[in-house]
Amino acid sequence: REESRTRQSKVRTDILKATDVAGVTLRVRRELRHLPNLLNPDEEVLAVAVGRLNEDRGLLVATNERFIFCFYGWIDQSVRSINYMNIIGCRLSSRGLTRTLHLEVPLDIISIRFVWHYAAQKMQNVITAHTANISEERRRRFEVEHLIETESKRRPLGRDDIIAEQILDLDEQYRSGSIEEGYYKERKMNLLGKLN
After folding, report:
1. Beta bridge partners of 115
2. Across the strands, what pairs with 91?
3. What is this structure's pTM?
C-alpha cells in the first residue's frame, strides 16, 4: 500500500486533472507511467485521451507546447511528438461511432481515431486554440519582418525626390480639375526651377 501511495504522489497533478475522460487510466496504464518522463519540466498537460494512430492504441496527450502520442506494447514502443508550430490545421470527422482527428502537418496528414467523442472534441479544442495563437503570432512576425525589410530597402528622400513628388501631386490635381491651368503652369515652372 505504501508503494502505491508513493507512486500516486509522484504523479503530476496536471496529468491527474487531464485524465477526467472515462476509461483513460484503465487502458493505458503503461503509457501513463512513462508520460512524466516524456514531458519537459515546464510543460503542462491540458488533455489526455485514448486513441489509435495507425494500428497502435495508445495515449494521446495535448500539452501547452505539443501533441504527443505514446504506445508501449509488450514488444515494441512508439512515441510521436508534434510541436504546435508544425501543425497547419486540425479538423474532426465522424464515421459511425468513431471520431477521427486529422492533423495537417507539412507534407502529411496524421489521422487519429477516437471512440470517446468527448475526448476527440476536447483534444481538437486544445490543439486548435494553440495553433490559432501560433498562426496569429506567425502573421504578426511576418508583418513586422516585411515592414523592416521594406523600410531597410527604402532610401531616404532627398530634396529632388520631394520636389518630384510635389510635381506629380500637382499633375494629379490638374487632371482631376481641382486647380486651374494658369495656377498649374505657374506652380509647375516654379517647382521645376528648384530642381538641380
Report:
1. none
2. 102
3. 0.58
